[in-house]
Amino acid sequence: MQRRGALFGMPGGSGNRKMAAGDIGELLVPHMPTIRVPRSGDRVYKNECAFSYDSPNSEGGLYVCMNTFLAFGREHVERHFRKTGQSVYMYLKRHVREKVRGASGGALPKRRNSKIFLDLDTDDDLNSDDYEYEDEAKLVIFPDHYEIALPNIEELPALVTIACDAVLSSKSPYRKQDPDTWENELPVSKYANNLTQLDNGVRIPPSGWKCARCDLRENLWLNLTDGSVLCGKWFFDSSGGNGHALEHYRDLGYPLAVKLGAITPDGADVYSFPEEEPVLDPHLAKHLAHFGIDMLHMHGTENGLQDNDSQPRISEWEVIQETGTKLKPMYGPGYTGLKNLGNSCYLSSVMQAIFSIPEFQRAYVGNLPRIFDYSPLDPTQDFNTQMTKLGHGLLSGQYSKPPMKSELIEQVMKEEHKPQQNGISPRMFKAFVSKSHPEFSSNRQQDAQEFFLHLVNLVERNRIGSENPSDVFRFLVEERIQCCQTRKVRYTERVDYLMQLPVAMEAATNKDELIAYELTRREAEANRRPLPELVRAKIPFSACLQAFSEPENVDDFWSSALQAKSAGVKTSRFASFPEYLVVQIKKFTFGLDWVPKKFDVSIDMPDLLDINHLRARGLQPGEEELPDISPPVVIPDSKDRLMNQLIDPSDIDESSVMQLAEMGFPLEACRKAVYFTGNMGAEVAFNWIIVHMEEPDFAEPLTMPGYGGAASAGASAGLDNQPPEETVALITSMGFHRNQALQALRATNSNLERALDWIFSHPEFEEDSDFVIEMENNANANIISEAKPEGPRVKDGSGMYELFAFISHMGTSTMSGHYVCHIKKEGRWVIYNDHKVCASERPPKDLGYMYFYRRIPS
């Protein structure tokens, strides 16, 4: 890097005291084994503290560990030193000074500033006419805080000079998130240019997709050769599936598939099976058009204009952002904004709403000292640490301070723009929570509702001990399915985290006005006149709530009473009410031409919501239940015909199971293989094993709900809370006590690496015999108990709620546009628009997309 090279080419230094070369060498000798030169693949964090949002621009500067290349603010560097023993840090600081004025009062002519050498991701204007910048770097040795000024190329050992040079010239660890860079890293598939597409007449509808080999309706992929829609499993997002897209490739060799639901004019997620990686398809538009998908017009509106050119859409942007209203900036704890990283507003809006909930505040910020002290060696890769960091950044007020009175007076005198709130940059948080997710790791706009569920999933998987703040969202839904022919019913329960309400367009109260507007709009377009003022459909909230509770048809319903497919209807009710109810208005859909459409409607969302009438009632007198029989297993035979065979788990061919087990495969996997291939022999079951052996539940016991639980008599099915014995054995083989291993694994959700970190961070551990005895007794009880397992934890209560936050979307689809969040704090509404936080004057509660309600205590 030229600027950095110039720095190290300068003689001498500017440290606090000068030393002879020998003195510096002797000072560094004991620490030389810990100083590393960054290698390819090392992430060098020189812009942001791992525990806070301190940077080289902060008052205390930033300390970069010369071994791990993690960065720490002044408040947190001592913790890292005590925990790791790493002593040598590079201190980085950017100084901002007012420029020297000329004789006429103006700033002196601009000159190249050779004092700027840090490659920082900051929002500072380095070309400012009023300020100049100077970067400072020095080595600091702990615990004595001895400082060695840089540059010092003549006196530093060669290894240290090379290491400092590499740290200063390193690129941002978030480069893959930066605009226009992440996509360029994908290779062009060698199969794209000559891809064969079958002329089979397949046309893909804009919605209602389902895997051709199972009933899954998510994580679906379109094969670009024959148009088959099949579920995934192999890809990074682990969003569920049975791997049928991969099986299809193995059967027929068709190489490329595109993910449905993620197609935009800018591209889509394309996967190459033979190349085993995501790829670019330069001819994707042509390949999709073969199946009736016009990706180049996915974002077009009905009048052919884009968002920024469509007059009606401008109104939506103005109303939701409260444009044209003088909004008063808000500062202090709880009023910190989040900088937009390029289409990251969906994340910002959700996180602002999440951290306005006391349970999340207590779980993370309330436990900050413990979470930070017991964080793993790389806190940038720990979910709880990054959640705590973000929560503290938003709630502490440390990064939301009002400008000084003198600064305001100076700005008024200079007639400058209004003071801008800087906010905090969630780069590190976004990098972690979106890691390995093909959508959220991109720089494209995403659906706030999908990110909310993704975040809840991460909270569930990384809960702190027994504390799980996402419990406040969890509720049970009772689904009642009735066979239309026999009138028999089945009641089931499922877990959910948000209530999805359809838009009842047919219930609009201003239909005449809408018809008149549509006629005027079409006439204006035909005559190229200005479009009329937008008229939105006014939908009563009660109509949306009624649409939610009405019966709906069940596709492909299999009636156990008839032992065949039949017509069925389903109704949903709340088996429990959550403490916080999240309501999503289903505003987005696709037209027949695959153009995304948004219901631009006004819904009179209530401040007080009563859904007690939606409480589930269970089996009613006079109702007869459907028999508890599972659908038949569908197995393709060698002649490509389908045969149906219903196998009782007790009838599994044990001889075939033992043949497979003798080959070294897990016993439970062998039982599943024989069961799912219909007792057709060890050879067919062996092929099933080869296809499914990489799945995470490969060796888990066979479970068939229709037969009342696990098909296997194995005891392991009851040990949901017991750490895996092989992991316990691995830790004890390292010399640790078994009790210590058990407690560490339970505290870290059986994660081996985190469990070892936990053990090392708890040197004061004393064996808790009561804890171990209780855990062992619980395990033994699980082995011999045939009672039903404990259900999901819910916080049931009254169905009365009050609105405290809502997220609004502007634009034609979730793949474009902008999100903002409104939150009611201290009795008034506040708008969070990226880094800008202001008191709201006219909160547009009728135009929201996601609404957050809190229970009113009864």
TrEMBL record:
Residues 336-856 form the USP domain. Gene3D superfamilies: Cysteine proteinases, DNA helicase RuvA subunit, C-terminal domain, Zinc/RING finger domain, C3HC4 (zinc finger). Pfam families: UBA, UCH, zf-UBP, zf-UBP_var. One of its GO terms (molecular function) is hydrolase activity. InterPro entries: Papain-like_cys_pep_sf, Peptidase_C19_UCH, Ub_carboxyl-term_hydrolase, UBA, UBA-like_sf, Ubiquitinyl_hydrolase, UBP13_Znf-UBP_var, USP. Its EC number is 3.4.19.12. Residues 187-295 form the UBP-type domain. Keywords: Autophagy, Hydrolase, Metal-binding, Protease, Repeat, Thiol protease, Ubl conjugation pathway, Zinc, Zinc-finger. It catalyses: Thiol-dependent hydrolysis of ester, thioester, amide, peptide and isopeptide bonds formed by the C-terminal Gly of ubiquitin (a 76-residue protein attached to proteins as an intracellular targeting signal). Residues 651-692, 722-762 form the UBA domain. Deubiquitinating enzyme that removes conjugated ubiquitin from specific proteins to regulate different cellular processes. Belongs to the peptidase C19 family. This is Ubiquitin carboxyl-terminal hydrolase. It comes from Balaenoptera acutorostrata (Common minke whale).
